[in-house]
Each structure stands twice: as structure tokens, then as C-alpha cells.
Design goal:
The chain is α/β, with parallel strands linked by helices. It has helices at 16-24, 50-59, 118-127, 130-133, 143-163, 200-206, and strands at residues 4-8, 33-37, 62-66, 75-76, 84-89, 92-96, 98-102, 105-110, 134-136, 139-140, 168-173, 210-213, 223-225, 228-232, 251-253. It binds fe (ii) ion.
Length: 254
């Protein structure tokens, strides 16, 4: 019997334009599980958006929300990183570097920070808000700490894929797992390493069914690596008109 898992990311409900849009175009409950793949709302202001979490709780059987980079803005990342499985509501979970099995299908969740090389470190640290608005153990967030989070998430995903006993799996990350079909407008951008990391070989050899990601605010059409379908469904910034191809009922099917 087939079933659906619904996904969306980059809702950015902290921005009034996005909040208004989502009130008019609410997520339609069609999937058995809803996965929100990051940049939903910063933890620092999530208490101002209780109505959004009530909506999720009232309309979806299970919601799994994994943090993007923006979740950590104006807070200390060490307070909510590593392996997370935190109950936000009775059926809404904040998840990172953790997995679950739903109907015999392994669902793997990770922010999956990308990897910044020394060549771009200075420019990325200087130009990306992540390094101004996130604290790390009371200090400035750095590329070294960022790359440490990358190693942790990659190790976690590889371990899950190696150890899984289920035949089917989907991986859900915020950051982009390949530069293949990377949005034309960002190709060659010095900040790209803070958005995507090349995991082509890992994906190709994994045999997993889907890899769902967010982060670059471009709804790239679905494509495959090996037998894996790479998909995304990002709202992006409504004010910048990034929301045109967002779907309120997008699902992967098994
Ligand atoms: Fe975003």
C-alpha cells in the first residue's frame, strides 16, 4: 500500500510577508508525516508563533521539524545541536541527527551543515549572517565550528545508511547535498560552500529513494542521482518573490 510523506522548507514565518502568505495558503494536510526541512522560524522567536505550531499539531498526525541555519539566529547553537528529538507539541518534534521508521521506511533527519574550505573561509565568515547572528558556546560562530557540525552530520548520515535494515529510506536535510543542477544564478558564488556540499558519490552508492533539502530558495526541478530522487519545496522570501513555485501539498510517495 502506498503512502505519502509531505515536505516543505524555508517557510521563514518570522517575516511578516511570509506569515501572511502562509495564513492565506496553509499547508494542506495530505501526508502521513510532515517534514519541515529547516528555516521555519528562529528558536529565539518561536514562542511568538504558537498559532503556527498549533496548526501543525491540529492538522498533521506527525510533524518532524529539523533546524536550518536560521533557527539558530540570535541564539547559541550549542544549546540545541547534536542529536535532537525534542517534543514541541504532543505530535510535533524537533529533530536533528536522528531517524525514525514509518511503515517500514527509514526517515533520516539532519541539518547537514556543508563544508567550508580554507580558500573561501574568510569571505564566507565575513559575508554570511550565520557568522554574525549565531553564537557558539558564548563565542562567535566560526567556520571551524561550522565544519565540525558538518563532520558530525555526515558521520551520522553515513552510519544510518550503513546500519539500516529497512529496504527504503529518505534523507531530509536543510543544506543542499550536491552542486549538480545548482541554481544558475548562484553558480560560482563565493558563498556557495555555505549552501551545498558535494555528496554525489555517497548518494549514488546509497540506493536511497529520496533526498529532500532546502536552503537556496530555488525550487529546482526534481532530478536523480543513481536511484535517488533529489527534491525540494521551499517557500523562500515572499517579499523577494521567491515563493512562486512553492506547493502547500508536496509529497514524496512510497
Ligand atoms: Fe531559508
Amino acid at each position: 500500500m502506498s503512502f505519502k510523506i509531505q515536505y516543505a522548507s524555508d517557510l521563514h514565518i518570522e517575516f511578516p510577508e511570509n506569515g501572511k502568505f502562509l495564513k492565506l495558503h496553509q499547508l494542506q494536510p495530505v501526508g502521513e508525516v510532515l517534514v519541515l526541512a529547516g528555516d521555519i522560524v528562529p528558536f529565539a522567536v518561536m514562542n511568538k508563533h504558537r498559532d503556527f505550531f498549533s496548526y501543525l499539531s491540529d492538522h498533521f498526525e506527525i510533524t518532524c521539524w529539523l533546524p536550518g541555519n536560521h533557527e539558530y539566529y540570535h541564539s547559541d547553537i550549542t544549546e540545541r545541536s547534536g542529536s535532537l528529538n525534542e517534543k514541541i507539541r504532543s505530535n510535533v518534534f524537533l529533530v536533528n541527527n536522528t531517524s525514525m521508521v514509518h511503515r517500514g521506511m527509514r526517515l533520516i533527519f539532519s541539518t547537514m551543515w556543508s563544508k567550508i574550505s580554507p580558500a573561501y573561509q574568510w569571505q564566507i565568515e565575513r559575508n554570511l549572517n550565520d557568522f554574525r547572528l549565531i553564537r557558539y558556546n558564548g563565542y562567535r560562530f566560526s567556520a571551524e565550528a561550522y565544519n565540525q557540525l558538518h563532520e558530525e552530520s555526515l558521520t551520522f548520515i553515513q552510519r544510518e545508511l550503513n546500519n539500516m535494515k529497512e529496504e527504503n529510506a529518505a534523507v531530509f536535510t536543510h543544506h543542499v547535498p550536491t552542486f549538480l543542477n545548482y541554481p544558475e544564478q548562484y553558480k560560482g558564488d563565493v558563498l556557495s560552500e555555505a549552501f551545498a556540499v558535494e555528496l554525489f558519490d555517497l548518494i549514488e552508492s546509497s540506493g536511497i529513494d529520496y533526498w529532500v533539502h532546502g536552503h537556496h530558495h530555488t525550487n529546482t526541478p526534481e532530478f536523480t542521482i543513481g536511484s535517488t530522487r533529489v527534491v525540494t519545496n521551499q517557500l523562500g522570501y515572499v517579499q523577494r518573490d521567491e515563493h512562486r513555485q512553492f506547493e502547500t501539498d508536496k509529497c514524496i510517495e512510497f
